[in-house]
Amino acid sequence: MMRERLTDVWRGNEKLRYLVVGGWNSAVGWGLFFLLYALLKQRLNYLVIAVLAHLIAITNSFVCHRLFVFRSRAPLVSSYLRFHVTQLLALGWGVAGLAVFVQLVHLSPPIAQCIVVAMGLVITYVLHRRFSFGQGLTADELAAVETPANPTGEDRV
């Protein structure tokens, strides 16, 4: 009974799924940042380390968002590319925000990274929902994707 109730809550609440998956992806991103920072801080600037951690974590994030949060059936290749555009915007925010929090607010890079990532969750939810996974598309836009020559809406390779 309790398990069924939890399953219903999970299935019916996209924002909850986004927060849980976002927490997982943030933990992966933070873990990578902390690990790379510990290993490379003597050789690389913390901003370069942040970019490296971001690039490594992005595919895990795409898969989790596509499967568990948005349950998207949007064409794989184009949604992956849109996801990357959104993540590049998030990366720009992350690098700029990290620099501001470290250089102007004088926080340590790991603490600043936690703040920047948490703020980025809200921004990226809206962008992913409307842009990356096509849930902001109109019926006409969806029909254009699912043409008779491409009835499944899948990307052609």
Task: Describe this structure as you would to a colleague.
- The chain is mainly α and 157 residues long.
- The protein has one domain (14-144).
- It has 6 helices and no strands.
- It has helices at residues 2-12, 14-40, 46-69, 76-103, 109-132, 139-145.
- α3 packs antiparallel against α4 (76-103).
- It is globular.
In short:
This protein is an all-alpha fold and 157 residues long.
Q: What tags apply to this protein structure?
A:
157 residues, mainly alpha, 6 helices, globular
> What structural category do the secondary elements indicate?
mainly alpha
Strand content: under 5%
Spans of at least 5 consecutive residues whose pLDDT stays below 50 are 141-151, 153-157
What do the pLDDT scores average to? 83
- The number of helical runs is 6
Q: Please give the alpha-carbon distance between the first and last residues.
A: 46 Å
Percentage of residues assigned to helices: over 70%
**What is the β-strand count?**
0
| Number of separate structural domains | 1
User: What is the oligomeric state here?
Assistant: single chain
Biggest β-sheet: count, sense, barrel? none
Radius of gyration, in Å, reads: 18 Å
Give the H and E element order: HHHHHH
Global morphology: globular
